């Protein structure tokens, strides 16, 4: 069926309810909108299935969620009775329809004879990962669109190790979805019936308690200044309870939560775009920070897997740390603490993505810790932890990405905003006791390892037209690479579509210069964006800054020239 046929099918089939049809009727004269909603099906991208909420095959709605779940159910059933009995843990965030989609997921799985552990209320994504490992389930699902705007929702699928599925299982699920054919082949069971038959089981407090205990066991230092003042904002998401709890139980008593952003709000009214990568998400936190004279501001995204922070500088202004900087600080803090304690494993490794900067790698090297690189996506980073469990080749110490995701240890196989908030608070308190801020520490790191700077540029290009322009941009860089920029000579190009380094194929281009600077370009797998990652390196601060500017100008000129 083409998109118009699909549109008409949704309008005429008895399977779809009246509200859905009404919504679709209202776009009858808007061909572009019909095209966008029906030209494709939502598929698994960097972090699961993600899309705008609404009627259509390319939207998040009860039909696409139930179809995906039937595909997941078939994938589990193919593994036999034991897998079905081990079951699936389900969590959800604060978004519109998150709870409804979680219940639909539970009801489809139960109808297929698969046991379900459904959280009794909103929970952070990392807690779902932890739960899979604790309960020994075969799989897990979180209903969340992470940091996307309010009109999005999503469906992240996890497998038995506790990390998000990789392409092999995603493909299996997709094949199963395609084989289901019509929506009417999806099975349902009433939630009540599932509960009565003990196929659906609510979970909550006990798991929270165990999780918090295990998170606290990751602490690295007690000789810290616990009087530091921290402003925390969960950005109206799921972080509020666990992050506050872990900070409180670690002894931080001066934690002030942004009141307007404390409670769940699916519209993220005071934030707009609930992504702490964007400094605007800190507006309210900065205000409260100034009022309280806070040392540190922490923000977690709605499903509490991402964290960003801002630090008070010498004249009382707040300075944002980006994901590369926070990641490098964590690498330094974790490895230096463990070096002191003599607990760095012989075959220890940190894992980062191919578009994450190299400062963490330089620090790790000094502690004889290897740095392993993967494609973008925490599923790939934690996929390495799973791999190491099997091969014993390395011991996973921590993973991080430039997109403000970090995890320490292996109790959680995804980025974890609770663990990371605790460690960011702890390292701030640790350095404060030594009379330093995180900015002072970062400067010392730069002085020692070189000025590794970065700039990440995201260009939003929406809809079918946007996607086509993204393709043209990628084609242009691929076919006609920019040779030299200023004094930097192009040394090496990696096209991850033809890469031989063992990574799966991916639409990423990376350009290395002779001085250690580099840039990469790729379409986002979670949002309608093309992303440019620029990294410079120099012994001199200003020279490193200038290199960023030069690469930015050259790449942006090229992008702007492609209509
Ligand atoms: O660049 P994208 O494909 O949009 O992905 C950006 C980020 O999205 C999610 O948060 C993933 O969990 C991350 O691993 C990824 O880095």
Automatic annotation (TrEMBL):
SUPFAM superfamilies with a match to the protein in the record: Phosphoglucomutase, C-terminal domain, Phosphoglucomutase, first 3 domains
Cofactor(s), names only, from the UniProt record: Mg(2+)
EC code: 5.4.2.2
All residue ranges annotated as the Alpha-D-phosphohexomutase alpha/beta/alpha domain in the record: 43-180, 209-310, 322-449
UniProt xrefs under InterPro entries: A-D-PHexomutase_a/b/a-I (IPR005844), A-D-PHexomutase_a/b/a-I/II/III (IPR016055), A-D-PHexomutase_a/b/a-II (IPR005845), A-D-PHexomutase_a/b/a-III (IPR005846), A-D-PHexomutase_C (IPR005843), A-D-PHexomutase_C_sf (IPR036900), A-D-PHexomutase_CS (IPR016066), Alpha-D-phosphohexomutase_SF (IPR005841)
A Pfam family the protein falls into: PGM_PMM_II
CDD domains, sorted: PGM2
A GO molecular function held by the record: magnesium ion binding
Keywords from the named record: Isomerase, Magnesium, Metal-binding, Phosphoprotein
Catalytic reactions on record: alpha-D-glucose 1-phosphate = alpha-D-glucose 6-phosphate
Pathway listed: Lipid metabolism; Glycolipid metabolism; diglucosyl-diacylglycerol biosynthesis
Gene3D superfamilies, sorted: Alpha-D-Glucose-1,6-Bisphosphate, subunit A, domain 3 (3.40.120.10), Alpha-D-phosphohexomutase, C-terminal domain (3.30.310.50)
Family, as annotated: Belongs to the phosphohexose mutase family.
Protein name listed in UniProt: Phosphoglucomutase
Source species: Keratinibaculum paraultunense
Species lineage: Bacteria, Bacillati, Bacillota, Tissierellia, Tissierellales
């Amino acid at each position: 069926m083409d998109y118009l046929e699909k549109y008409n099918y949704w309008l005429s089939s008895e399977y779809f309810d009246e509200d859905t049809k009404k919504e679709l009727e209202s776009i009858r004269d808007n061909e572009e909108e019909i095209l966008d909603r029906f030209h494709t099906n939502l598929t698994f991208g960097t972090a699961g299935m993600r899309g705008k909420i609404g009627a259509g095959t390319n939207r998040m709605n009860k039909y696409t969620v139930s179809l995906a779940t039937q595909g997941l159910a078939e994938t589990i059933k193919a593994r036999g009775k034991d897998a079905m009995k081990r079951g699936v843990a389900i969590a959800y965030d604060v978004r519109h329809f998150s709870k409804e989609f979680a219940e639909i997921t539970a009801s489809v799985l139960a109808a297929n004879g698969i046991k379900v552990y459904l959280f009794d209320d909103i929970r952070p994504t990392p807690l779902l990962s932890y739960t899979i490992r604790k309960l020994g389930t075969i799989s897990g699902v979180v209903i969340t669109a992470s940091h996307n705007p309010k009109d999005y929702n999503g469906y992240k699928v996890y497998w038995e190790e506790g990390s998000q599925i990789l392409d092999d299982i995603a493909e299996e699920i997709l094949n199963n979805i395609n084989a289901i054919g019509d929506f009417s082949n999806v099975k349902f069971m009433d939630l009540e019936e599932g509960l009565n038959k003990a196929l659906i089981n609510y979970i909550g407090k006990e798991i929270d308690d165990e999780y918090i205990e295990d998170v606290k066991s990751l602490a690295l230092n007690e000789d810290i200044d616990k009087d530091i003042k921290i402003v925390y904002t969960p950005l109206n998401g799921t972080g509020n309870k666990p992050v506050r709890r872990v900070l409180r139980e670690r002894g931080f008593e001066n934690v002030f939560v942004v009141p307007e952003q404390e409670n769940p709000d699916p519209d993220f009214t005071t934030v707009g775009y609930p992504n702490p990568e964007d400094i605007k998400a800190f507006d309210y936190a900065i205000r409260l920070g100034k009022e309280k004279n806070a040392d540190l501001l922490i923000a977690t995204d709605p499903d509490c897997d991402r964290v960003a922070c801002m630090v008070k500088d010498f004249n009382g202004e707040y300075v944002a740390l980006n994901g590369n900087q926070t990641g490098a600080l964590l690498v330094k803090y974790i490895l230096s603490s463990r070096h002191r304690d003599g607990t760095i494993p012989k075959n220890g490794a940190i894992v980062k993505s191919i578009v994450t900067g190299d400062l963490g790698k330089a620090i790790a090297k000094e502690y004889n810790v290897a740095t392993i690189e993967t494609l973008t996506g925490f599923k790939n980073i934690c996929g390495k932890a799973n791999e190491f469990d099997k091969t014993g080749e390395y011991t996973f110490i921590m993973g991080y990405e430039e997109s403000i995701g970090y995890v320490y240890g292996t109790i959680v196989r995804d980025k974890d905003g609770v663990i990371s908030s605790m460690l960011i608070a702890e390292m701030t308190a640790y350095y404060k006791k030594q009379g330093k801020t995180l900015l002072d520490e970062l400067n010392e790191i730069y002085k020692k390892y070189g000025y590794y700077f970065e700039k990440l540029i995201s260009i939003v290009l929406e809809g079918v037209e946007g996607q086509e322009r993204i393709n043209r941009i990628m084609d242009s860089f691929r076919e006609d690479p920019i040779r030299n920029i200023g004094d930097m000579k192009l040394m090496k190009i990696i096209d991850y579509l033809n890469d031989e380094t063992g990574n799966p194929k991916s639409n990423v281009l990376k350009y290395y210069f002779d001085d250690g600077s580099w840039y990469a370009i790729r379409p986002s797998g979670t949002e309608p964006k093309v992303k440019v990652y620029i990294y410079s390196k120099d012994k001199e601060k200003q020279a490193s800054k200038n290199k960023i500017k030069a690469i930015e100008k050259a790449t942006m000129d090229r992008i702007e020239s492609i209509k």
